[in-house]
Write a structure and sequence with these properties.
The complex is a heterodimer of chains A (90) and B (188). By secondary structure, chain A is an all-alpha fold. Chain A has a single domain, classed as DNA polymerase, domain 1, CATH 1.10.150. In chain A, helix 1 packs parallel to helix 5 and helix 4 crosses helix 5. Chain A contains 5 helices and no strands. In chain A, 62% of the residues lie in helices and 0% in strands. Chain B is an all-alpha fold. Chain B has a domain of 47 residues: Transcription Termination Factor Rho, Rna-binding Domain, Chain A, Domain 1 (Orthogonal Bundle). Chain B has 7 helices and no strands. Chain B is rod-shaped, with a radius of gyration of 30 Å. The chains are: A mainly alpha (90), B mainly alpha (188). Chain A: GO terms for molecular function: DNA binding. Chain A: This is Barrier-to-autointegration factor. Chain A: It is found in: Chromosome; Cytoplasm; Nucleus envelope. Chain A: Keywords: Chromosome, Cytoplasm, DNA-binding, Nucleus.
Chain lengths: 90, 188
């Protein structure tokens, strides 16, 4: 089991509300900017995309890579973060 | 056939055709699915030429197999009871050559059929055993031949020959040196 970061723990601890996209695990300033430019300015919009992709890991990873150029680790962190949040709150 | 001009329904159907797991085709997911379809189509195009190559290899292997069969049929033509079975064998060998099954598979299949032949040749079990032993020997030699042929891409054949000659020369030198030692002992 890979250890989760503090960012991950903070995100899954509570409903995301109006948190920015950079609050997601794996998404830093650079990737966050790229996502905002594409219109994904809030974490819940990325959540929307995650749900539209049926919470499928491969599809979400591919989408994230295409949209903001996330590497494998970043894709995994973001996916894991959203998945756990959904398990807790959705 | 441009994917961007297709409707969302058509994209969804194409994804199902290629067996790609997907969600609804909406604005935010469309470009991702178009990209996946392009990759799937490109893979299909790449997959088509390769069967030809494997077919060519099978043909090569079949050619070596054909070369060996006359040797076997000649060696097995001993007893009178055999004369009847020989055309049957030749026909069965021919069937195996023309079949497009893999070479490695046709080998155990052939051995399996030897056992099936047993009830047909029950009138002369000795000749059957004789033929089986005879078939085992040339089959082993023919097996080693394709194996040698397979190793040629890894090590060039001429290198193998050169190495073999070098070893032979070396052994000859060692042997001749041994002889001179013995001659010295003889003098004493």
């Amino acid at each position: 089991m890979s250890s989760t970061s503090q960012k991950h723990k903070d995100f899954v601890a509570e409903p995301m509300g109006e948190k920015t996209v950079m609050a997601l695990a794996g998404i830093g300033e650079v990737l966050g900017k790229r996502l905002e430019e594409k219109g994904f300015d809030k974490a819940y919009v990325v959540l929307g995309q995650f749900l539209v992709l049926k919470k499928d890991e491969e599809l979400f990873r591919d989408w994230l890579k295409d949209t903001c150029g996330a590497n494998v680790k970043q894709q995994g962190d973001c996916y894991g973060c959203l998945k756990e949040w959904c398990d807790a709150f959705l | 056939m441009s994917l961007s001009s297709k409707s969302a329904q058509e994209i969804s159907e194409l994804l199902d055709e290629y067996g790609i797991k997907h969600g609804p085709v909406v604005d935010s997911t469309r470009s991702l699915y178009e990209k996946k379809l392009k990759e799937a189509m490109a893979k299909e195009k790449r997959a088509k030429p390769s069967p030809d190559k494997t077919y060519y290899r099978e043909e090569e292997e079949q050619v070596t197999y054909v070369y060996k069969t006359p040797v076997r049929s000649d060696s097995s033509g001993d007893s009178g009871a055999y004369m009847r079975a020989r055309p049957e064998w030749a026909e069965r060998e021919y069937e195996h050559e023309t079949s497009n099954s893999r070479y490695s598979r046709s080998r155990p299949e052939y051995k399996g059929r030897d056992f099936v032949d047993e009830p047909y040749m029950y009138d002369s079990p000795d000749t059957y055993k004789h033929s089986y032993l005879k078939s085992a020997a040339p089959m082993k030699s023919s097996e080693s031949a394709p194996k040698a042929a397979k190793s040629s891409p890894l090590i060039p054949l001429w290198v193998q020959f050169v190495f073999f000659l070098a070893m032979a020369v070396f052994l000859y030198l060692v042997f001749t040196n041994m002889e001179t030692n013995e001659s010295l002992k003889g003098i004493e």
